[in-house]
Design brief:
Order of helices and strands: EHEHEHEHEHHEHHHE
Strand order of the largest sheet: 3-2-1-4-5-6-7
Helix content: 40-55%
Number of domains: 2
Distance between the termini: 29 Å
Strand content: 5-15%
Structural class: alpha/beta
CATH architecture of the largest domain: 3-Layer(aba) Sandwich
CATH class of the largest domain: Alpha Beta
Oligomer: single chain
Shape: globular
Number of helices: 9
Amino acid sequence: MELGIEGRWALVCAASKGLGKGCAEALVMEGVNVVINARSSQLLEETAAHLRHLNPNVTVLTVVGDISQETTRQAALAACPQIDILINNAGGPPPGDFRDWSRQDWLDAVDVNMVTPIELIKATVDAMAERGFGRVINITSAAVKAPIDILGLSNGARSGLTGFIAGLARQPQLAGRNVTINNLLPGSFDTDRLKSTHQNVAKSSNQEYESVRETFRKKVPSQRFGTAEEFGAFCAFLCSAQASYMTGQNILLDGGSYAGTY
């Protein structure tokens, strides 16, 4: 399917690996020019070289730094001639017991997983509306739909972003000008973060790593973990011309793990 976004410009956050990289790959294959961001300079440049190899006809630019920092956000925004597509993405806060978290822990979680994407949205959506095209995708978590007790920081911060988006996406001055804002909620995708989680479980429970992974895999109705490539493909479709009638939605990609009807 021709997605109708060739020649557009996208800013993809946390794109050096994992789901962010998967999104950048899918967009580049559709002919989208990208500015990619991550904290690791070496890994980011390796990803940029990979993206240029995938499609030599697009421009791939890099901005190194923590996207939750104002200076990095400004550099990323300035690197794009214009931003037609914004992919908000950031690693989730650590798991734990809420009794152990300080006020600063909460503020850090909200800053990275709620305030930072809002700041980037604020900086881009009005210009999108003026041009008559815009796509914002927030990569959040399946925990927004089905909270996980040890992920309280993530549950809270990402749910705050979700509530904010529910109202913003329905503003006529955005939705009526072909600017859509949607949230993608990943379940168990085979990324470094998932592997790290399984390693921690294996260590704390004195089990073999592969045994832990197999136990978690069997819990997924699809009987497998998702891939960054298929996540990216879905993200690219949400950025397409054909997806212009979908906005303000929370789309769960979890292999059927969420057992609810709604």
